[in-house]
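Methods — Computational structure assignment.
A single polypeptide chain was analysed. Its primary sequence is given first, followed by the predicted tertiary structure written as structure tokens.
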Amino acid sequence: MEFKKYHIKRLINELKNRLDESDSSSSHYGYVDFIERCIQDEEIFKTSRGESAYKDILEHINNDLSQKYYFSLREELTHKEIENLCKVIKNIGNPYQMKFGKSSLNPTTLRYINVALDLKKKFPNKDFKKIVELGAGFGGQALILKEFYNIENYHFIDLPQVNQLIQKFIILHKPNFEYSFSQIETFKSSQNYDLFLSNYAFSELPKKLQIKSIKNVTSKAKSGYMIVNNFSDISFRYLSKKGYHKYFKNLQIHPEIPESYIFNKTLLFEN
């Protein structure tokens, strides 16, 4: 009964969003407006990741899920290794940190490490040198992945304002890989990428943009890894299970570990 209640509530919300033509959840809470202010105002940028307008979209992992990430990571890494990986991402923007023993760790960074380890497990024989990420937040996933792969080029795809914020953040870390930016509609590449990556962002796009990103972006990637929301048999606003199977070759469906929402899955594909 609980699963059915979730399912009905999700469909009602989808239908409501479809009728009001809102393009994505990122339009809520003044997210884009806040990003623009972060770019223009250094004082706002210094506290940005701790502000509600930003936290509600990208820094919202609760303490219970944070603990699940941490203890999942501890199955493969020591506490010191986790701590050192967390230090790869500077705490620019004053993000929330949670205590684990004597260490203060950012939950979002724990998620990025979790994704990196999962990639290594699911693609054990691949060294991803050219990566394209859709919906990259502030660019933290790229900074963590460079600790696991010999990245040569990383391409970020997001809204224009978010791309500017990513660039501002990434520059401060001086990564040893080349990086570039575009939007779904403007992405063009004469070369294939080794990996397409999306943590939730692809599944939160309206269906028309999902299909456009498949045509413009995912078709250029040899392998794909997506954590998706709303993976269900029926969907008004997003691709359904049938839709994913239609558009992605050799689709593999795995549970999200740890699970953050009842309809979340990890999807892999090969082109």
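Note: Strands lie at 98-100, 103-105, 130-134, 153-157, 178-182, 193-199, 221-228, 252-255, 265-270.
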